[in-house]
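Lab notebook, bench 4. Still working through the backlog of constructs that have no structural model yet. Next entry is a single chain of 716 residues. Request: give me the structure tokens for it.
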Amino acid sequence: MKILSGRINLHGICWSAAFWLVLQKKAPTVFLSAKNAYIMSILLLLDLSLPFKKPVVVFTILLFVILFAPLILGKLRIPSIIGLILAGLTLGPYGFNVLERNASIELFGTVGLLYIMFLAGLEVDMNDFKKNRNKSIIFGFFTFSIPMIIGTLVAYYLLSFPIPSAILLASMFASHTLLSYPVVSKLGLAKLQSVNVTVGGTIITDTAALLVLAVIAGSTMGELNSAFWLRLSISILVFGFLVLWGFPILGRWFFKNVNDNISQYIFVLSMVFLSAFMAELAGVEAIIGAFLAGLALNKLIPHTSPLMNRIEFVGNALFIPFFLIGVGMLVDLRVLFQGYEALIVAGAMIAVALSAKWLAALVTQKIYRYNKIERNMIFGLSSAQAAATLAAVLVGYNLRLLNENVLNGTILMILVTCLISSFVTENAARRIVLSSDVKKTENEEESPVSNQRILVPIANPNTIEQLISLALFIKDSSSNVPIFPIAVVKDSEDAAERLQDSYRMLEQASQIASATDQKTQVKTIVDPNVSNGIIRAIKDLHITDIIIGWHGKKKADELIFGSTLDNLIGKTSQMIIVNRLVQPINTIKRILVTVPPHAEYEVGFQRWAEVVIKLAEQTSSRLLFFSELRVFEKVEQIMQKQGKSISMEHTPFEDWEDYLILSRYLKKNDLLLTITARPGSISYLKMLDRIPAYVSRYFPETNIILLYPEQHGSST
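Model written out:
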């Protein structure tokens, strides 16, 4: 009855409104029927006038734009980034005025911008970043100084701006936004040296440009004194220390103690915005804080982890598209028709911005001998103007240092530079991918890791996530071969009940892998003997690597590990990775690798070396080798051949009877990885069989991996 009464009241209101509209109409009422007036009143009640203001309507339109704009313009070979910017232009206040750029759009746009900078910091390979640190500094110097010099001269002599205004305008050209970075990331080129150099240079030039903005603003308000410089310097140093030193400690503690996926994601997002807020308190822009948060949490969020997949998914699906649409809404093409002065200012700004960034990319190319495609990649990534540029022009406009022509010219410059940046970056990225594919097919030597088929026997629900995560870390990311989680149920009276438990565990394993877009092929085996069931699966599935958990306890009557593991090691020749991890693997800081003598002559040497390198790469860990020098040098050669830049150290270690001396080197958050051997192999030592007992007794709280190399295949 309440619903019916509500409907009657609504209709009564509509008819009353219709009657009132008829009475108020100055034109003859014959042209306005009660029915039409009723429809008009409904529209008034729904508030469907342009621009739309109802949150549900606005959000629905934006979602359809995010869905269809890239698909439609993709047919015309227009990059998705451009499509979203053009969609914002079309629907925005300077287009058909379907949507207004209100506080909600600005909020989501700000989140998207910070997300772009955070992802840029998160996807930087820290080892490559350290290796290319000097290159990034050099590029950052050129991409800042060249636009500053050219921009100041053009603004002062051509546009007749006073010196403070000319310097502020030039700082807008010096900064840039990594708008097209998602294109590079999507194509798997985030670790390319030219990309790393550009990303590193971005933080330098943006910081410098925003410092110029702070200085000019301070001088205008009469605050440019020694106290100003002291306050700015101290605040930036304190901010950088708290983020780069404090965030990793806090993050490692959180990830070790909280396993909930949603809580981990919210924690990461909170750190990003806390860092952005702290950056603003320090006197620099929030984008600097977001980038530093990415660098600080980089080692704790591996690139193949479920958490990384969630971060990228939410950003690329929602926040970043909102930012791009918001940028399009700022574009006002009417500035082209407001007189020649606006055109001159806009043309000069676009010319200076693009030519200066191109010169910086050219100089960097010549110094480091990059090819033309890599130069275009650097230019494409560094030519887009958006975030810091908007901040500078709005501050300058409010302080009356920049006029309306510069404001309009900035919006037009943003559109043109974003378009060119997207086209150039995508073209360069595709050409690099194609050239890489050609090299790959021409390479006759196939890496042993490239034909991986990883088996993960599941028995304990508490270790499923650790085992699958380890499998994801060492798996070749370019391989489409699934991971093979299996459960072996012992054939007994309670087999039916155990089968139900195994189905639940395998489903959990599949969910963990699918969170990283990795495929799994699960299998349940019923066998009177567990080890025989695993061996049967190894043969049926043509397995190359086995990852298996170990409780870490050694009983007196057990030969090495226990009957299941001992049988598996003795009756197979594949690589077996036995692990006992006491903390999440992404929180590891160092990996201590012990290698027996003559291990470099084993058939499986290159396979385990590549696995160790990949594990160190994924966890951003340092490698400390305890071995003969020959082994270390051969592993180093493999790493260099792969183009990796992992921190490696060597300590001579020959007396394996003194294995316990390793406790002197072990620290908190370390992983002790021992390369062992099967009896009869060239690197086998009888002492290796005693290591599980030593681990159980003397290293109860240490992360342990015992790796048995494969014993067949073509020699390396």
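Notes after review: The two ends are 83 Å apart (CA to CA). Residues 404-442 form the longest helix (39 residues). Flag for follow-up if needed.
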